[in-house]
Amino acid sequence: MTFGPTIIRLTVTTLVLATATATAAQKTAAPPQDKAQVQAPAPVVVEEKPTPYDQRLIRLAEVLGSVHYLRNLCVKEPEDVWRRSMQALIDKETVNEAKRRERMTAAFNRGYRTFASVYTTCTQPAIVAEQRYRAEGATLASEIVARFGN
Length: 150
Fold this sequence. Notes:
Layout: H1 4-28, H2 54-74, H3 81-93, H4 98-116, H5 124-148
Helix pairs in contact: 2-3, 2-4, 2-5, 3-4
């Protein structure tokens, strides 16, 4: 048995492939760029991982939206406490997480719009609803902190 011709063919094939690869790499290589043309690195994308309390947080956002609407409907001077509280919660919970921010904002707006479509003046049922939603919000906040807080 002679291995000479087989080894020669493999060597030649390897050289041809290496040369072809090097030539192709040179052709597809980008021309050198000026320092001014160098692009900034792409922004870091943070993977959004749902928290175990996201559903409760979404409900709390909806409750805050409802309370914000009902409180402003029934007080003489409008207050912005509930909206600002929601904004602070969103800012702390959704840093670099656009989709979570969108979900929480949508929940707040949904709660606001739900009562805006039902109550246009302050009535006794509106006052009762506001009190119940405030109690539910306090319960949700306490549960979230007690179960998932540090």
